[in-house]
Amino acid sequence: MIVDIPIIRKKRFSGQARFSILIPTWNNLKYLSLCIESLRKNSHFTNQLIIHVNEGRDGTLEWIRSQPDIDYVYSDRNIGICYALNFARELADTDYILYMNDDMYVCPGWDLELYREIEKIGHKYFFLSSTAIEPADTGNPCVVVKDYGADLETFREDLLLDSYYSPLLSDWQGATWPPNVVHKDIWDLVGGYSTEFSPGMYSDPDFSMKLWLLGIRVFKGIATSRVYHFGSKSTKRVMVNRGYYQFLSKWGMSSGTFTKNFLRRGNTFDGPLRHPPVTLGSRMKNFFKRLDGLFHKNI
């Protein structure tokens, strides 16, 4: 049972901050400190930084305590991404909650591009993502594959800063993964991230599904807002939950069906999404997947 989670506020942010940036971290100080350095150096706005420190046995907790501009939440054991984000949300002062991974490096003006899009939309019923640059091709159509280093030792920061804007892309459909941003009212209305997915696998499409059922239809990836993502430096170390089957059991369809058919993940953005027709083939496919999920649940 989780009790007595310290929530530490360093300063209250004024109207000059545009985003409250929530970053869960788990004994990953070297990547986290680079992420924070990039946020300070390359952000247009002075945003609110909120870290959830899981364990922090590598010096993370002491380092965070020494930083005057970082609010933080601390748990003495790893409580996963979902609980971490929901605790960190309690410190958010701005209207916009932005979730970011600790193994990301933001490129210049990344936040300005997001805020310009928010102003253009003109309402709070949206979900936006930045566009990630990653060193390896994992089959994600929303990612720019360009190798600026697979880890800190091989990271070529100068080259990234010189060419992160290339290649030019169009905005894309299917915003789901971090960095992502949502209005605080929408976050609260859907209850944040679902803790049944702890420590966090498939909590991203689950959050998007909750937004979809609320009526959100703008799931937009912003091509000019870019971050470099080293890739799953924490998740490779954790015992993962059975998120695929949890999502299937909860929503009656696979996450792939949802992101491909409903969110049209990776397609060029062409306006708000519409509810897709559900074919007999799709129904049958998900029916057999649910049966498979029941089988795996019982073994």
Structure description:
This protein has one domain (7-297): Spore Coat Polysaccharide Biosynthesis Protein SpsA, Chain A (Alpha-Beta Complex), CATH 3.90.550.10. It is globular and about 55 Å long. The chain is 34% helix and 19% strand. The chain starts with 6 loop residues before the first strand and ends with a helix. By secondary structure, it is of the alpha/beta class. Strands 1, 2, 3, 4, 5, 6, 7, 8, 9, 10 and 11 form an eleven-stranded mixed sheet that branches.
What attributes does this structure have?
single chain, 299 residues, alpha/beta, Spore Coat Polysaccharide Biosynthesis Protein SpsA, Chain A, eleven-stranded mixed sheet, globular
- Tell me which oligomeric state these chains represent: single chain
Straight-line N-to-C gap: 27 Å
**Structural classification:** alpha/beta
Give the total of domains.
1
The helical percent reads 25-40%
- SS summary, helix count: 10
- Residue windows where pLDDT falls under 50 for at least 5 positions: none
Specify the overall morphology: globular
> Could you say what the CATH architecture is?
Alpha-Beta Complex
Total strands: 11
Quick structural gist:
The chain is α/β, with parallel strands linked by helices and 299 residues long. Helices cover 34% and strands 19% of the residues.
Which secondary structure elements does this structure contain, and how are they paired or packed?
Layout (H helix, E strand, L loop, with lengths): L6 E2 L10 E8 L2 H14 L5 E7 L5 H6 L4 E6 L4 H10 L6 E4 L4 E3 L3 H12 L5 E8 L9 E2 L11 H7 L8 E2 L6 E4 H7 L12 H12 L4 E11 L13 H9 L3 H8 L17 H18 L2
Parallel strand pairs: 2-3, 2-5, 3-4, 7-8, 7-11
Antiparallel strand pairs: 1-4, 5-10, 6-11, 7-10, 9-11
